Amino acid sequence: MAVLALDIGGTKLAVGVVSDAGDVVADAIEATGKAPSADAVVERLLRMARDAVSRSGVAWQELSGVGVSFGGPVDFPSGTTVTCHHLPGWEQFPLREAVAERSGLPTTMDNDANAAALGEATFGAARGCPHVLYLTVSTGIGGGVIVGGRVHRGATSMAGEIGHTFIAPDGPVCTCGRRGCLEAVAAGPGIVAAARRALDAGEQSALSAIPRAALTAKDVAEAAASDALAARVMSRAGEYLGIAIAGAVNLLNPNIVVIGGGVSGAGDVLFRPVREAVARYAVPESVRDLRIVPGSLGQRGALMGAAALALMEGRRHSGRRRSRRRR
Q1: Is 322 inside any structural domain?
Q2: Is the residue at 309 inside a domain?
Q3: How many distinct structural domains can be found in the chain?
């Protein structure tokens, strides 16, 4: 069985032909750019998909379905996007229907954090774990929850929005408009903003050699091993993450916490304070066997999650067909 996976992000579009074993047989990636409409993005994705399929050795009619990961909130039951903070024109767009009509294949879709959670649970760092908490920490912070091997989406498809957990009284304003969200203090821009504030206050740091406008979270993370200011900023971001994760662990009692996204590449300067805060603030029985690990799928996390969505849907349909034949 092979499926088509599509990933719509603010900076890149990705497609892949993926086997049921998780092998990416062929793929394609392009910068998202400025598309005139959501319809135009779908057309472009399917053009990329046809090219990838032609290189894969898999005939289009042999694909069992399409899975789509979308970089923004979605309404899962209806298969529509709610909005997108990075791309215009996605308000209430019927994405599942648009892809199904143009591809001629059964289609399922979800937001990118849920997809990445499912990808890590199916093919990555959380493989074999029935209960998973996933965070993606990059420009923003998203989350996904796997309960009993299935994505938990909640009443309105909004479960997992850990980035908008209130964490810092009097903290900076978040992109959502509220003050003190986890995303505002622990995502990449929050890390950079904290470092700039310290530099502007006159603190000495190797980061002073980097123009303020060019400073990145990666710069701060790389300097943290030998620079006191950078180490303090990363430790504080990790502690904020750990406090939020501890609350989620108390509520959900997962087997594993997986942290993906660009900021997760910081390594121990981030993961050490995360683990220390979780141990400090979570109920001891909840963390006795808990693992907190980086994701293993990298930039392909959401794409592999889209593939996992399609594979699960295909197996469900196959099971229904077998059941009907037995009756």
Answers
A1: no
A2: no
A3: 2
pLDDT band (50, 70, 90) for residue 320: low
Kindly report the pTM of this predicted structure: 0.92
Residues 286 and 166 reside in one and the same domain: yes
Residue 184 shares a structural domain with residue 236: yes
Last residue of a domain, one of 60, 76, 111: 111
Per the structure, the complete domain to which residue 33 belongs is given by 2-111
Contacts with 95 (C-beta within 8 Å, 6 or more apart), sequence order: 38, 42, 68, 70, 74, 79, 80, 81, 109
- Segment 45-51 long-range contacts (CB within 8 Å, at least 24 positions apart): 45/6, 45/8, 45/13, 45/15, 45/99, 46/99, 46/102, 46/103, 48/13, 48/15, 49/4, 49/6, 49/15, 49/103
Spatial contact of 147 and 117, defined as CB atoms under 8 Å apart: no
Q: Are 68 and 8 in contact (CB under 8 A)?
A: yes
Amino acid at 292: I
Same domain, yes or no: 156 and 261: yes
Q: By the 8 A CB rule, do 179 and 189 touch?
A: no
Q: In this structure, are 207 and 284 located in the same domain?
A: yes
Domain identity same for 141 and 278: yes
Give the three-state DSSP class for 144. Answer: strand
CATH of the domain at 238: 3.30.420.40
Non-local (6+) Cβ contacts of 41 within 8 A are 8, 13, 32, 35, 87
SS3 232: helix
Q: What is the pLDDT of residues 67-120, one digit of tens each?
A: 999 999 999 999 999 988 777 789 999 999 999 999 999 999 999 999 999 999
* Angle, CA 63 vertex, CA 60 and CA 65 arms, to 5°: 120
- Closest Cα partner for 250 from 162, 126, 182? 162
Q: In sequence order, what DSSP letters do the residues of 173-204 get, joined into one string?
A: BPTTS-BSBHHHHHSHHHHHHHHHHHHHTT--
